[in-house]
Amino acid sequence: MAETWQLVIFWLLAVIIIGSAVRVVTTGNLVHAALYLVGTLMGAAALYLLLLAEFVAWVQVLVYVGAIVVLMLFGLMLTRAPIGKGDFDNNQRPLAGVVALAVFVVSSAILVDAFEGKEINLSTAADPSVEALGEAIFSTYVLPFEVVSVLLLAALVGAIVLARKD
Amino acid sequence: MTELIVAAAEGGATRTGFFTQYMWLVPLLPFVSSAAIAFAGRRVPSKGHVFGILAIAAAFALSLAGFVDLATEAKPVEQSATWFQLGNPAGSAEHGPALGEESVEGGAPGTGFEVGFGIHYDFFAALMFVVVTGISLMVHIYSTGYMHGDDRYTWFFSVLSLFTGSMLFMVAADNLLQLLVGWELVGICSYFLIGHYWEEKENSSAAIKAFITTRIGDIGMMFGIFALFLIAGTFNIAELNLAAEEGLIGGIGLTIACLLLFAGPIGKSAQFPLHVWLPDAMAGPTPVSALIHAATMVVAGIYLVGRTLPLFEAAGVALDVVAVVASITMIIAAVLATLQDDIKKVLAYSTISQLGYMMAALGVGAFTAGIFHLFTHAVFKALLFLGAGSLIHAVHSNNMSDMGGMRKFMPHTYKTFIIGSLALGGIFPLAGFWSKDEILGSALRHALEGHWSAWVVFVVASVTAFLTVLYMTRACIKTFFGEFRGHGHPHESPGSMVTPLWILAGLSVVVGFLGIPVIGPFADWITLPGEEHHAFSLGYNLILPSITLLSAAAAIYVGYLMFYAQKIKINMIGGPFEWLYRFVENKYYLDDIYLGGVVRPVQYPLARAAYWTNQHILDGIVNGTAAGTLSAARGTYEWIDQGTIDFMVNGAAGITGRSGGLLRYIQSGNIQRYAAVLFAAVAIFVALLALT
Amino acid sequence: MPVTYILVLSALLFSIGVYGVLARANAVLILLSIELMLNSVNINLVAFSAMLQESGIPGQVFALFVITVAAAEVGIGLAIVILIFRNRSSVDVDEMSLMKW
Description:
heterotrimer; A: about 170 residues; mainly alpha; Four Helix Bundle (Hemerythrin (Met), subunit A); about 0% strand; C: about 100 residues; 3 helices
């Protein structure tokens, strides 16, 4: 029973995610594209919730939707994005389509071939707590954590350096 | 075999001589002095003559010592050194078995030859050494006076020493090749010396004439030497003689070889028909004439025939040819001598005639007589030439028509010249008497034994003896008697010139006694094995000499009548025999025959042909090769280097450039294009990896 | 549920992101598409974490790090886009082909 609900929710989320993603890359309106990205990201967050990763889901919403998409919108505005419909496709759409298709086919084929028959058993899966996550980050993965911190710092400084008006 | 030869020549010799071991020094000393004079002569106050005189005097002393050694029962010496070998001449330690011999010494027959040099010192060589060094010494001393002040004084003495050394080298030879080398060397020295006053064209022409004429003879001689080698397998003279005596070689081959060999003496010893160079060679300085053309070089031919006489005797016909040629030479030269005005030319023709005498003696097998005459002739002919030189020096002219009455001005020269003339004429008891009579006696003996060529020799020699006295009488009368017909005031020559004259005059008197028949020692020294020496016989030793003395006295009287008292005048001009006179006056037209028949054809057509060949063919080949190389080089440059290699190199660069030019269109600058390619490549790679 | 569903989903999302990167002309839209790709990776990671259930939940930890890096990258990317816009008055990627032949 629970299995069935999981599958239904999953399919629903899949449709949302893919649908929004497709609209991101095909819409003619720039702001609409950003908003459709929000849809994708939210769907992904919901999927995380389904997969017992609540903290990641919230971080996703906070950082991705709250910061990154807003940053994108800022970018759009600062670069005088035309309001309303426009053509934002370059002339290698066919090639892009072919390449994307090839990538999809190859990667899905390999993945399916590798993980055929494996199951995610959400019923019996333990629900990891934030505490466990924190412990993991600050004990086992403290080094990557520090490195990422430095990376953020570098990115921050770099962005300022790049974008300041001289 | 060497031991056999030496034993055959030894006779009674027993001990090893002291000086005979060192006789190789005798040719060496003049060579050294020649080099010394050439290099250092000019810087020395004496201008070089001191070296020459010292060296020759030392060589003379050594030669005398060696002769004395031999005379006192020392053994003859043979020393040799090998220069190089071709093939394999010696199968064993000896020269293998020669022609027909059994291989008793255990060696295989040789198939090659040795070239070496060495010294074969026996009485004959010893005598020649003494003669050459002695006369050379006299001439050296004389030349210090005669050539005084000459520009090329040092050069003269250097070549004089070189000549002496070469002559000695030739005389000492133990094999024909060394003899040939010495022969050629004396030829070239003669050329230098004759052409000493080469500023005058006729002098240099005379030198060339001498050289070329003797060269023609030398060619025959070379072929003769090679022919002898072919039939006998060796160049060694002693071995050849032994082979001939033992009958191992003979027949037509030997005859031809000997005739060819004789060509050399015909040229060098001025026999008919190659005698034409000797009179013209008088263009050289008188000391040169005295040394070379009286005493030494011209006797080289006599020496060669004497050395190889066993070969000629074995060849039979060759010896007859020698006798006849010599006889012809004798008579024609004597006739010409009676017609000359130039005193040196008289002596030159006299020399030719006397050479004919020596050669004729050898031609009848009278080895001892011939060599004795060589010896005595060297002494008095040198004396006569030096005397003539003294006269020329005083009068500054060669011609007797510029002289006359010289006995008043030059008493020493006069006296010594007369002594020399008497010696030449064969007047008792001077040297020429003994030697000439020996020859006549041997010729008569040989003729009576049945050899026809000896009759020719005897008759001609007798007539020539008469003529000899006649022309010498004429020369003396014209020069020393009568009125002086020249210019200036002649005076006697300096002591350096007169002293050698007196020394030679004394020798002319004395030397003859060495060869007195029966009792003289000469016959013991100079003899061939197997030659007969006869005991005293009335006919040959008393009657014959008396007849010759009478004919000589008659000749003096006739000469007196013709030239002094002018009682007999023979004037052929205008008479029926004028053609004869002209014929003789033009030296039997021999010179003209040679000029027209030999020289001109070579000079004009042959030389022109050679020049044409050189210019067109040889130069053509050279130029053609050069042009060919140039065009090959150009072709290589243009086709291979520029066309192919550079083409390939440039082509590679061009292809790279052009392909790069095509490939650059990939750089569209469009990042998304790059990204597309990137992703596509990744997809392909992953697919490939997954599938394999 | 079979894990392959989620994997195919993420593969699809990734390829859509690829399409977006290659086909869009506006620089900001390209950045958006890159976010799609990063998200697909995150989905994969979390799915694996749920499947394997390892202690220390590395999948989720890694997903967090990816999100962090994505944020940094967007910051820089936009800074560059703004800089380009300042110099060229346009963010059309097609026009930025100075490095062409």
